[in-house]
Fold this protein.
Amino acid sequence: MKIDALYSSPLERAGDTAWPLATSTGLELQIAEEFDEIDFGEWTGKSFDALNADPQWRQFNTKRSISCAPGGEWMLEVQARLVRKLRELHENFSATIAIVSHGDVIKALVAHYAGIPLDLFHRVEISPASLSIVTLDGSEPRILLVNETELRSRFGCAPLTARWKMFASKVKAKFVFVGLDLLSRTKRQLKQAKFPSAAMSRWRSSSSKSVG
């Protein structure tokens, strides 16, 4: 499976995951705000331990259709920006595109194309360093793969490029979503560190890890 374009969330930890794939394919790492993490508003930077005592946080994790973070983003808004961007890419590329994004963001997209209500989207599992594949070719979108992790158990989360090469000959697709590498993600705080705009097209030769 030849990858013709590579997109990433603007968060630093997404760039950490995407960069090995960019270097192995020779593709420019393109940044798209539409693939960003959910905007957690006033919850950004807070620990999960602190949030667990908040009833609004508990509702947010069970009823995503009717709740959002204070000052944050609704899951319906997340879905809308994702679908708009994929439609734009579909109309401008007759190619396969790899996208590095975040667990709940990928879940929201899979739920949309599978017709799963947002309140049930937690039934979809998106693991760190997993692969999920969606195609928009033809009259209907098709979900070809969700949360592929078999190769992760064989190769570990790094190097992602080794897993990619093993998987690449298996399937043809329009959009391949890559969950964040375990080495780039420690889920203890809701933190959104974006890497500098000057680094978006070239990134760094040595990556730094951010908590998120």
Q: What stands out?
A: Residues 5-199 form a domain with the Rossmann fold fold (CATH 3.40.50.1240).
